[in-house]
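User: Predict the complex with pyridoxal-5'-phosphate.
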Amino acid sequence: MAIHARRLLGPGMMNPVSALEERIAALEGGVAAVAAASGRAAQLLVFHMLMAPGEDIVAANKLDGGSIGPLSHAFKSFGWGVTSASPDDPSAFAAAIGPKTKAIFIESIAHRSGAIADIEAIAQIAKAARIPLVVDNALATPYLIRPIEHGADIVVHSSAKLLGGHGHCAGGLVIDGGGFDWLQDQRYPMLAAPRPEYDGMVLGQAFGNFSFAVACRMLGLRDFGAALSPFDAFLTLSGIETLPLRMQRHCENAMAVAECLAGHRAVRWVAYPALQGDRYHELAQKYCPDGAGAVVAFGLRSGEAAGGALVRRLNLFSRCAEVGGARSLAVHLASTTLSPSAVRLSIGIEDKKDLIADLDQALAT
Ligand SMILES: *Cc1c(COP(=O)(O)O)cnc(C)c1O
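Assistant: Here is the predicted structure with pyridoxal-5'-phosphate placed in the model:
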C-alpha cells in the first residue's frame, strides 16, 4: 500500500513536497497526505471534497480568528453553511448536526484559548452521524496529540506554525486517516460517484483507503492550484527535524509562565490546560500528557484596557497574532469567549527566565 500510495500521490522522484507528505502522514499515523499552499488552502481542499452547495459543517466555536472569517463569510459564496458548537460540550455537536451536515471541524488545541478538545467524544458523535471528523492539529502537532489515534478521520495543519517553527515558511497539510467509508450511501459524490473528468472513475473504489488524499489532489489541488512550493516544503521538513526538542521547550516554558502568572497578584485568572485545577486539566492529561502546547491566556484584575497596555509594555514578546513560532508573542483579545479582556500568549523557545522577567516588569506597572 505504501508503495502504491507514493507512486500515485507524488511524482516518481522524491521532491521535498512528496517527502514532506510522506513524513507528516507517518507522524500523524495516517495513510497519505497532501500538501497545500497554506493552512487555509488545506482546509479548502478538505471542505470542497465534502460539501456541495446547500450543505454544511458543524465547526467548533473557538476556531482561530482566521478560520472564523472564511468559514462564516467566504464559504457563503460556495453555498456552504457553518453551524457552530462549543467543543466544551460534545453533545452540542450532536444537536447541531442536520441532514445536510457533511463534517465536524474542530481544533485539537484551540488557537484562541489553548483549550483542549475531547476528540474521542466528538469522534463518536461524528461516527454515529456517519460523517468525518476533521481536526486542525496545527497547535498540538503530532508530537503532542495524534488525532487519528483518537478517532479523527482527517487532520489538517498550518505548517507555518509549529511544524515549520520559525515563521519563515508558509504551508498547509491534509492527512488522510484512511478509516472512513466514503462509499456508504453515496453521501460523498466526489469520492463515491463516477468523475466525468477522469473517464467515469469512482475515486473511492479506485484508491481504497487513501482515496480521500487522492481526491484532494486530483479534484482539488490540481484544479485550484494552491500547491505548496518545494522551498517551503524543504523549510518545513527542516523544521520537523527539531520538532520534539522545540515542543518540549514550548511546553516547559508555557508551564513556567502559566505558574508564574497564576501566582501573580495582578492576574485574575490563567488558562493553561497543564495547570492543576484548569478546566481542561483532565483532557490535557488524557490527550497530551507530555505538555499542553504554547498557548497561555490570562486576564488582569484591573480590567479591560489594562490588557492592551500590558501587551505594549512587553519587550521580549512581539505583538503579533501568529501563534506557534520560536519567538514569543502576546496579543490582547479585546473580546473573546474567555472574557472581555484576555491576553493571549504564544510562548516561544527563549530562556524562560527572560520571558518571566519581561512579564514581571510589564505587570509591575
Ligand atoms: C494559523 C492557523 C491556521 C491558518 O493557517 P494559514 O497557514 O495561516 O493559512 C489554521 N488553523 C490554525 C489552528 C492556525 O493556527
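The two ends are 61 Å apart (CA to CA).
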